[in-house]
């Protein structure tokens, strides 16, 4: 069985992705974390059916993405444990949000930390794990993953990395770092093609996932756990739901998708144009439109759209 690596597996989307892979594929799942491997392993296994096979297929490794030597060490540990079993899936999940409201709130340490975690850590993970992909397409023996034997190398991005459609401002460090990681993915896709590495590079927008990162920006009207919640209309999901949607998108990829920036519906997101706002921004926009309809009448609104 081949290998999947979830970089940032201790909580939120990363943990949910590890649980999804253990439940729906036969891959060996490696989760990396800087928050304690034993605790991460326990948290992941608590959300899947117990069994010797499941426990055997899960490995958690200590890896701080701010330390290249730690990333290199983790890569070597994977090679030593799994030998020539190819890397079929790598997802860089780790991220941070420093939400500056204006230019005066930009902090040099926080801006550096944003790029260190959201961009540089992802780049260095690719650097040390891409060599594990192999030079030939793998056998189609990896139940529940990408057909055709290709590997997927992904980073979690966000629509707020858009440039042209940035109408609200703020979030300087986060926006800039997500725009940067989209460029990393595009550049990686070109290198994979040039080197004939059978991999698909993907930037992925999962929607707004209800985690510690987003809790201050998603209001009570968006409680994704309840059936029929408003949250889903605006792309706001629980971690397990977001993980399931991402894996559905991954399973539908082909070689032509490499370098793409896709959302949870599998639709392309233009790197320089944000189609929609996320979370509370989208909600505010739609509320404003509804108010405009009420005040100027539907005929006038239709003419102005």
UniProtKB/TrEMBL annotation:
It holds the Pfam family adh_short. Gene3D superfamilies: NAD(P)-binding Rossmann-like Domain. GO terms for molecular function: oxidoreductase activity. GO terms for cellular component: cytoplasm. This is Rossman fold oxidoreductase. Belongs to the short-chain dehydrogenases/reductases (SDR) family. PANTHER family: NAD(P)-BINDING ROSSMANN-FOLD SUPERFAMILY PROTEIN, SHORT-CHAIN DEHYDROGENASE/REDUCTASE. It comes from the Eukaryota. SUPFAM superfamilies: NAD(P)-binding Rossmann-fold domains. Coiled coil: none annotated.
